[in-house]
Amino acid sequence: MRFKHLHELNAICTAESKTIAQLMIEEQVQETNTPEADVVKQMSEYYQVMKEAVRKGLTEDTTSRSGLTGGDGKKMAQYIRQGEACSGDASALAMAYALCVSEVNASMGRIVATPTAGSCGIIPGVFISSQERFGWTDEHLVNGLFCAGAIGYVIANNSFISGAEGGCQAEVGSAIGMAAGAMVELRGGTPEQVVHAVGLALKNTLGLICDPVAGLVEIPCIVRNGLGAVTALAAADMALAGVRSAIPSDEVIDVMLEVGSAMPSRHRETAQGGLAQTPTGRKMMEKLAKPKAKRAEPEDKSEITGADAEMYTEAGSPQGKQAE
């Protein structure tokens, strides 16, 4: 790649009058020696998987194998229909869709790691809810994924994207930064505004620990995905309004590396600290560790129709592969 840092990404795009998506597509073509049409086609297929995961989360049973989670995305969708969302319908819908995708992951459904499975709901939640709101084409959202990918590339090569290495700031935090920056570009913002959105988003997640109850990507991971989608929208709005990250975004990424490196191992995906070691967290883990009789298969709810299915509008209807 011709860039390693966000300031370099901004400089190249500004000098060549390109969007970050356009530059990333060109770089991907060169790196992989793959025709542009094939590079874009693959990303388009990823987006269809994301949309299918949202649909599945809204219309099917997403109870996890552990039985600890499932159905919260549907609850949010039902709540939105009451028209009283404290954060507004746009934020609430992004939250609902992010929860849905993360619950599909927890129930062994098909998702796209963006950048990891533990943070898989944030970008789909932001992208698909925004597509429905603004009437954007799939092609536009696919370009947004390339922009998000460029941001993720910089973070991964200068800090962490793994919770085991840098805590949840590396997974959920990175996804929030990727979604925020991409949202700015999708709304017509400049590369410079994209970069500021990333810094604004990441500053809000520095130090976030990875403390999964029983070591499962469920509690608190799913809720963090939902709230992460809202944070990404807020950071994008700040950047589009002209708010700047006083600490340069590349320096914020450096701080993520510093903080993650100093984080105790018990707060890095080991389930030995944080929420995982609360009295309730330990009880959950002990219960799951006990031998069980053959678990009854959950009721098949794949044919759910009506209000929950209607939440998934035509603009976001899946056209790609079915979840496996």
Question: What layout of secondary structure does this protein have?
Answer:
Blueprint: H1 6-16, H2 20-32, H3 36-59, H4 72-80, H5 89-106, H6 122-134, H7 138-158, H8 163-166, H9 168-186, H10 191-203, H11 221-240, H12 249-262, H13 279-289, H14 307-310
**Uncertain stretches of 5 or more adjacent residues:** 300-324
The CATH architecture is: Orthogonal Bundle
Give the helix/strand class: mainly alpha
Q: How many strands appear in the DSSP assignment?
A: 0
CATH classification class: Mainly Alpha
Q: What is the number of independent domains?
A: 1
Shape, per Cα inertia axes: globular
Q: Order of helices and strands, N to C?
A: HHHHHHHHHHHHHH
- CATH fold-level name: 2-methylcitrate dehydratase PrpD
Compute the number of helices. 14
How much helix, percentage-wise, in residues?
Answer: 55-70%
Average pLDDT reading: 92
What's the story with the biggest beta sheet? Answer: none
Q: β content, as a range?
A: under 5%
Radius of gyration, Cα only, in angstroms? Answer: 19 Å
Give the end-to-end Cα distance, rounded to a whole number of Å.
33 Å
Domain Serine dehydratase-like alpha subunit: 17-276
GO biological process, one term: gluconeogenesis
Cofactor: [4Fe-4S] cluster
Keywords: 4Fe-4S, Gluconeogenesis, Iron, Iron-sulfur, Lyase, Metal-binding
